[in-house]
Amino acid sequence: MELTVGAIIEGKVKSITNFGAFIALPENKTGMVHISEVANAYVSDIRQHLTEGQDVKVMVIAVDPVGKINLSIKRLEPKPAPQNRPRSNHFGNNDRPRNNNFGGSNDRPRQSRPAPAQATPTQATVAKSSDQLFEERLKQFMSESDSKISSLRQYTDHRTKSRRR
After folding, report:
1. What local confidence, expressed as pLDDT, does residue 94 receive?
2. Which of 15, 11, 16 is nearest to 28 (CA)?
3. How far apart are CA 22 and CA 8, in angstroms?
């Protein structure tokens, strides 16, 4: 029996190490399940999930030319539903609003980002060629980039002038 990537095989846990478990496969072959391929959740101790002599179903994920066989148990399990966690800002505190004013003064109006382009194509965008769409996007990027650079220059000029005093 030739082992191919994606094949599902039954095997028996032969030995357990800190980094994974060696699985006895048919035809006296041995493969290894890395600790990261044991379960969908974080595994700190593989012995909590597997025991020596346990029968397990594994999937072949790689076969090296040298003969190493990489196996996975977690790829046969159903994927867990994603948890809806609130997105945190850069500082890790969701309650505190971010202050995007560089100097800390509130006398300058805050610049808002332009709204993202709509995902549904309209008849006008469908009729345009890909070169025209690219040119429009490039022009938009260049104008946004120029405005950001000019605001940064104003900020740095203000900072260097205030330090000279």
Report:
1. 52
2. 11
3. 16
Residue type at 112 in one-letter notation: S
CA angle 101, 103, 107 (to 5 degrees): 70
C-alpha closest to that of 111 among 66, 52, 151, 70: 151
Residue range 136-146, pLDDT digits in tens: 888 889 888 88
Residue 118 confidence (pLDDT): 55
Q: How far, in Å, CA of 117 to CA of 135, rounded?
A: 15
Is the distance from CB of 32 to CB of 69 less than 8 angstroms? yes
Task: Give the closest residue to 21 by CA, choosing from 52, 67, 63.
Answer: 52
Q: Please check whether residue 39 is in contact with residue 79, taking contact to mean a CB–CB distance below 8 angstroms.
A: no
The answer to whether 30 touches 19, Cβ cutoff 8 Å, is no
CA-to-CA distance for 94 and 87, rounded, in angstroms?
8
Per-residue pLDDT band at 125 (split at 50, 70, 90): very low
Enter the tokens of residue 19.
Answer: 């980094």
Q: How far is CA 32 from CA 24, 29, 158, in A?
A: 9, 10, 61
Torsions phi, psi for 102 (to 5 deg): -65, -45
**Which tokens in the block code for residue 91?**
């500082």
- Residue 11 corresponds to which tokens in the numbers above? 């095997």
